[in-house]
Amino acid sequence: MKTILVTGGAGFIGSNYVRHVLTTCEDVRVVNLDVLTYAGNLENLEGLEDDPRYRFVRADIADAGAVEAAVADETVDEVVHFAAESHVDRSIEDASAFLRTNVVGTQALIDFARAREVARFVHVSTDEVYGQLGPDDPAFTEETPIQPNSPYSASKASSDLLVRAACHTHGFPGLITRCSNNYGPYQFPEKLIPLMISNALEDRPLPVYGDGLNVRDWIWVEDHCAAVDVVRQRGELGQVYNIGGRSERTNLDVVKAILGQLGKPESLIEFVKDRPGHDQRYAIDDSKITAALGFVPKVGFDEGIRQTVAWYTANETWWQRVKSEAYRDYYERMYGERTGEG
Ligand code: NAD
Ligand code: DAU
Predict the structure, then answer these.
(1) For 122-155, b where at least 16 C-beta lie within 10 A, e where not — what string?
(2) Active-site residue among 17, 130, 152, 330?
(3) What is the pLDDT of residues 55-92, one digit of tens each?
């Protein structure tokens, strides 16, 4: 039985990944290491507490001593590193947590993984490190220059470069994935799609930045998790793999699709002040992961958004507890201590 240390497994993609890997790989144990910031929600993993192949430990990746203490009794075979500050708007307000977790934390985790001589370290990164595209530019390839535009993407680019440097200098067994915008169950309702669905369900205004014509490539979260796991199992050490959903949409198209499915009026759309430095367009050329590892996303946008709207409609308690912050009691109830970070 192999033990995978998953960082950030209480977040949106990390929690979907923990379920994915436990379901698809019988020979794997997961140790989920997460400090539980506002974005960490153990209710995303409800039901796994008694699974003998799953263990939760609470630690900050930027605190090397805390990480070592949390997993002192574990043999760690592989690491899949999701833990990060992930929201662009928050990074524009205050970049400090992004530097601590995404940059200092990633280097601390590299040092930990080297000391433990792990066999593979998958660093989960983002297409935002490439900067932005114009309407007719070709999609990002793995060779596109790194030109991040927000404090968030600059911190993620820094972490990619630290993984790359460790591979080059120390023969570190790192792999980097760069994915486009995820959507699906358990996404924190500060991000576009869950914010718009939950606001629409409450008949509140849907705040669209600028003219709403910025373009993102949307990937169903389960497809991203499957791609990360293909890279974990079969990716070539030292390589970067782009992952995309083959579903470019303007923000306005996304919002109108949500309103259409919910039968709510477009008059709920409210155009608001644009995000400073707002990237115009992201698009992914995923030919490398398809050719090298045979990965293709399975769920197109129309099906994915239908399932996502259905999930948030059926799971109103989950997002109401997030919006009211009631979810922050879960750790205390299950593990006997209150979450601290803001
Ligand atoms: P998220 O914000 O939902 O979750 C982040 C998780 O990391 C939370 O559980 C949080 O508690 C944990 N965390 C934060 N700081 C930590 C620290 N110092 N120590 C330990 N744990 C910490 O994020 P997400 O949307 O699930 O993104 C996961 C990863 O995927 C991130 O690295 C992000 O950059 C990357 N990514 C996200 C997207 C997307 O569309 N959401 C797309 C591409 C890549
Ligand atoms: O591309 C991958 C990235 O996608 C990830 O690395 C990030 O972690 C993730 O947050 C996401 O970044 P974005 O900035 O693209 O996602 P967000 O959901 O914040 O915004 C998506 C688009 O919607 C963007 O053009 C801004 C716009 N938007 C967002 C919000 C929250 C609005 O118009 N109104 C809003 O209220």
Answers:
(1) bbbbbbbbbbbbeeeeebbebebebebbbbbbbb
(2) 152
(3) 999 999 999 999 999 999 999 999 999 999 999 999 99
Q: Which two tokens stand for residue 227?
A: 């791609």
Nearest CA among 72, 179, 207 for reference residue 122: 179
Contact 245, 308 (CB under 8 A): no
Q: CA 115 to CA 170: how far, in whole Å?
A: 11
Residue 337: its pLDDT value, please? 59
CA 271 / ligand 2 centre spacing (Å): 15
Task: State the ligand closest to the CA atom of 254.
Answer: 2
Stated pTM of the model: 0.97
pLDDT score recorded for residue 342: 39
For residue 204, give the ligand nearest its CA.
Answer: 2
Task: Write down all domains in the chain, each with its CATH number in brackets.
Answer: 2-185+220-246+282-299+331-335 (3.40.50.720)
pLDDT digits (tens, 9 = 90+) for 323-333: 888 777 777 77
Looking at the CA of residue 190, tell me the nearest atom of ligand 2: 31
Residue with tokens 């592989």: 78
